[in-house]
Amino acid sequence: MAHDHHHTDLDWSEMAPLLEAQAELFTPLYERAIAWLAREVTEPGLIVDAGSGPGVVSCLFAEAFPGARVLAVDSARPLLERARDRAARRGFADRFDTLSGELPQVLAELEYPADLMWASRSLHHLGDQRAALAAFAARLAPGGTLALLEGGLPSRFLPRDLGIGRPGLQARLDAVQEEWFTRMRADLPGSVAETEDWPALLTSAGLKQTRTRSFLLDLPAPASDRTRAYVAAHLSRLRADVGAESLDADDLATLDRLLDAADPASVHRRPDLFVLTAYTVHTAVRPV
Questions:
Q1: What is the number of domains present in the chain?
Q2: Helix H or strand E encompassing 64
Q3: Of the candidates 23, 7, 15, which has an alpha carbon nearest to the alpha carbon of residue 78?
Q4: By the number of CB atoms within 10 A of the CB, which of 115, 176, 221, 263 ranks highest?
């Protein structure tokens, strides 16, 4: 069955502000994940962020590991420019580098193997995830750790009954996003269906000592202006890219009210807006 690529192709550079805002808002979650990794990993010399985006998390690694060099790797040069600017503003440009190219092939250009490689929701944008994991593992130093952020729980922003529209809107949005994700995966070059048993896939890549840990982000109501702006941007993207063809007229009307800053029921104004989500990190080690 043919798929319409127009609806699943992603312009990462265009998404830069949303990616940056989300990573900044989710910083407490990432900091807890990095603190866990710091207990699992001996002081790394080189940290590679494979699929770094605008470099928010790359810079958190640089802050957490002051003795390490950090390499942000991404295919979108404008995102890497943002990463370099962020590193310079934070005062560690002298140990922060970027590498532009398509994963996983670009990892062959690494001058040194990685002591810690972080891949946050980048693997699922590669057609053959098993082959990509093998390529990631091959660029680890002996004893090096691969940390894979995949999975977790869908984000929640709103109560089940919003007071407008039919209750359960976010559950229906989840279903729409799952269908979009399935189409996106199928549209990728060389796409291979894979059971998402990440510890098993890490083991199949020749890695050992798999561990898994989930990290919660809980930003309760009342929401900050930054939280409201992020939720509005997130829902706007869903409305434009995913929802228009997949949601019924009632749900679209509810979304439009949620996004109308003049509406008291909108995410810009309602007092019950929150953010609650969980991300899952899987790690494994290359044998010495």
A1: 1
A2: helix 56-64
A3: 15
A4: 115
**Which residue type does 246 have?**
S
Residues 64, 70, 75, 76, CA torsion sign? positive
Tokens describing residue 279: 């991300």
Say how many CA atoms lie within 13 Å of 127 toward its Cβ: 9
Task: Determine the structural domain holding residue 270 and report its residue range.
Answer: 5-285
First to last CA, the chain: 45
**Whose CA is closest to 232, among 1, 7, 14, 22?**
22
Does the predicted TM-score (pTM) go above 0.70?
A: yes
Tell which residue, 119, 115, 138, 24, has the closest CA to residue 69: 115
Rounded-to-integer distance, Cα 245 and Cα 263, Å: 24
- Tokens representing 81 are 């420019």
Confidence of residue 242 (pLDDT cuts 50, 70, 90): confident
Report DSSP state, residue 224.
P
Residues 146-184: pLDDT tens digits? 999 999 999 999 999 999 999 999 999 999 999 999 999
Closest Cα to residue 73, out of 42, 118, 125?
A: 118
At 160, list the tokens.
């089940």
CATH number of the domain encompassing residue 72: 3.40.50.150
Nearest alpha carbon to residue 210 among 219, 201, 220: 201
| Cα 171 to Cα 179: distance, rounded to the nearest angstrom | 13
**Of 89, 2, 99, residue with least CA distance to 47:** 99
